[in-house]
Amino acid sequence: MDSLLNPDILLPTLVGLPLIAAILTTLLKSHGLRASISIAMALTQFMIAAALLSWLSGSGTSLETQYQRYSLAGWGAPLGIDLAIDGFAALMLMLTAALTLVLTVYSRYYFFEPHSRLDKTARFWPLWWLLIMGINALFLSGDIFNIYVTLEIIGLAAVSLVALDGSRAALTAALRYLLVGLLGSLCYLLAVALLYRAYGTLDLAQLSAVAEPTAITWAALVLITTGLLLKTALVPLHFWLPLAHGSAPAPVSAILSALVVKTSFYLLARLWLDTLAPAATDSGLLMLGILGAAAICWGSIQALRATRLKLMVAYSTVAQLGYLFLLFPLALPDEDARGAGLSGPAVSAIGYFIVAHACAKAAMFLAAGNIMRTFGHDEIARLRGLAKYMPLSLLTFAIAGASLIGLPPSAGFLSKWLLLNVAIDAAQWWWAIIILMGGLMAAMYVFRVLNIAFTSVDEEAQTEPKNLPINKLPTIMSLCAFLLAMLTVVLGFNAELILDLVTVGDDV
Amino acid sequence: MTQDSLYIIASVGLFGIGLYGVIAAPHILRKILAINIMSVGVFMLLVTSAKNVNSTPDPVLHAMVLTGIVVAIAGTALALFLAGKIHALSEASDEDSH
Asked: Looking at the predicted complex, does its ipTM rise above 0.85?
């Protein structure tokens, strides 16, 4: 058993397993088999991620802030490709595995239409597993060109999943998403070319050892940042996100908002604070923070004005992504920590925030998907009396909303509390105002929906067309969404699980 | 002006032309073409960097260009497919309205 827990086996398996699942689900003809294999694979992936995590926290002292590395096929860097993992990457992998498991179970029911002639599951499962493979590979990658490839795998799979619905709105949103994604990756690739020209290596660890604050490093950092900000959809480059996330099928919206946009944020954090830290100027870090603050305000205002539920949740993602970018100015005082791996109080707070937001946002998108499936629409103004028909989905929405607002005892409350502490410690109290204001605005858009949903409909005097459920919803779909929402509460009580992981090797 | 800097200027120029096209071109096909021009610019920079005066060219960069071309083809194919689907759907809805 001990040899199986060897990271040399675990790391490549996390990339290989989803790829095998993608191939199997392409080959298999039966809907039931595809779904069972997917659920089995998701379970295995979850256990592998958990094993990796237990191994990582078990060997905490040897980690320091250094990567654990694995060379593919025994070829080391610079010629070969290395997989690498540290506490932050492990946290992201665990989050991916957990969300994949819940969303895979949900998707099995979401896409299954027994009497439909067009079997959507045949297209969904291979793309789904390719997307998961891309996400896992990106978090594990220790090589900037390999990261480019994973970015493209994620991009192409995500675009195809958005287009799955086949409606004109979905296709248009997907095409725009694709163009933005390609534009972003090309900017990134140009930066990779510049870095290789200057330093002759693609390996993240080797780059961080030799990177100097030269004009070329700086130009590469600017290009990478532009490209990845497009993919992360930070205001003012967020224009593609609401439509793409709002028109995708519910489980796809959930993973796009919970994980995919965060993959490019993860890279930005890694490159700005670790690999290319020498070229990261203070004004650049501050600029990213200011854009983040703008995103919080603008996203919240748009969420308040949205007329469709899924669009509102998508705009809420634009706002919540803004919080992530507060990491950059808050990491400013930690001069020593920069360039020495991703660690420190600001990074732990953001890591926790990512997990809290991922669970809450996935729960919200699933709840919105349930509502849309049951009523055939998701117009907020027509959701009156929802509490009567779908109490569990509404409860899910309310709990997830409470976490987004930052009400105790949710994970959202703790993550904001940690961020506030970091902001005060860093003597940058003005971010605290933005954080509190964002919570207030989140409360406004969440309660706006709840208010309408709890308004009882006077059946007799009703003048508008009746809003009745048209489809029956499998109970397990409501339960999946509810489970994710409850996860935010559970994590709110067990924060040290996550915080210990990000700071692994930091305080020994 | 050396040969090397000529290539670098040309590749950055192509990247710029493509970038302008993606943002400014009105038609979707032009945008897709512009993305391809951008990627040609990047590939040219990669191939130029592989040149080694005294020994054999750097194979890592050539491998990167090959991977890049494959990715560009996949992206272009998907974009063309989506554009074609959208076009077909909008024609169908035009016929409905007549």
From this structure: yes
